[in-house]
């Protein structure tokens, strides 16, 4: 059963070594992410699963001890998922590497941790079932859900400007902040893809996992400093 969830954005710029001189611009966002992870620890889960959007080669399960790297962003920095030293066949995708980095900032040792790389194109009809399976995998399950909102808030955004982006992000922020499962489940794949919202599928997996759990939500942070919607929420 799902007992808690934290929702965080996944830009590699969250990692100060990657952001370099721009790191202070995301200090408040980092702090909110760590607060959300504190909610997970307080729930005393038996299992923590980190969800994040992933390309084809990185989809599926990643065990505790899996390694991620930020070398692709010009920084010689590795992160490990949890405390285990076991070798893993595949490297974590960027979203899960950011999640592993956040956990490392809290010295996470409250429960075994695994990760799941989720296709951004996962149909909304299938995503909730994935969540239900995760929630049923242990008596007390927590989720760390990585993913960004629209990337089209300004003309300098990665996806340029799209007038639909602000309303899309506002709806997502409200749904995450109120744990509105129906609203998350109803997010349409096509507009989300057009707006380059990488978190859509992961949020819908969360919605499935939370069915029947009676969790309430709090929006801890919402911003779009680079024309990309970033949300931090905690469900407990």
Structure description:
The chain has about 240 residues and is of the alpha/beta class. About 30% of the residues lie in helices and about 20% in strands. The protein has eight helices and nine strands. It has helices at about 15-20, 25-40, 95-105, 125-135, 165-180, 180-185, 190-195, 200-210; strands at about 1-10, 45-55, 60, 65-70, 80, 115-120, 140-145, 215-225, 230-235. A seven-stranded mixed beta sheet has the order 3-6-2-7-1-9-8, with helices on both faces. A hairpin with a 6-residue loop joins β8 (about 215-225) and β9 (about 230-235). α4 crosses α8 (about 200-210). The protein starts with a strand and ends with a strand. The model has no long low-confidence stretch (mean pLDDT about 95).
Topology:
Blueprint lengths: L1 E7 L7 H4 L7 H16 L4 E7 L6 E3 L4 E3 L8 E3 L13 H12 L7 E6 L8 H9 L5 E6 L18 H14 L2 H5 L3 H6 L5 H10 L7 E7 L6 E6 L1
Helix pairs in contact: 4-8
């Amino acid at each position: 059963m799902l007992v808690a969830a934290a929702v965080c954005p996944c830009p590699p710029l969250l990692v100060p070594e990657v952001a370099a001189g721009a790191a202070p611009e995301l200090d408040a966002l980092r702090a909110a992410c760590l607060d959300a992870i504190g909610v997970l620890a307080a729930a005393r889960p038996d299992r923590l699963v980190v969800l994040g959007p992933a390309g084809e080669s990185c989809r599926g399960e990643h065990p505790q001890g899996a390694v991620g790297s930020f070398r692709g962003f010009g920084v010689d920095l590795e992160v490990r998922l949890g405390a285990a030293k076991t070798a893993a066949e595949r490297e974590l995708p960027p979203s899960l590497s950011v999640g592993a980095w956040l956990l490392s900032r809290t010295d996470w040792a409250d429960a075994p941790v695994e990760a799941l790389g989720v296709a951004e194109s996962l149909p909304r009809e299938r995503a909730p079932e994935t969540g239900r399976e995760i929630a049923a995998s242990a008596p007390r399950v927590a989720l760390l859900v990585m993913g960004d909102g629209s990337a089209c808030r300004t003309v300098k955004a990665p996806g340029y400007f799209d007038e639909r982006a602000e309303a899309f992000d506002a709806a997502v922020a409200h749904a995450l902040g109120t744990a509105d499962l129906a609203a998350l489940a109803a997010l349409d794949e096509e507009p989300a893809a057009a707006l380059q919202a990488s978190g859509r599928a992961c949020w819908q997996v969360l919605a499935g996992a939370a069915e029947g759990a009676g969790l309430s939500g709090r929006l801890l942070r919402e911003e779009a400093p680079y024309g990309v919607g970033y949300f931090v929420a905690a469900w407990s």
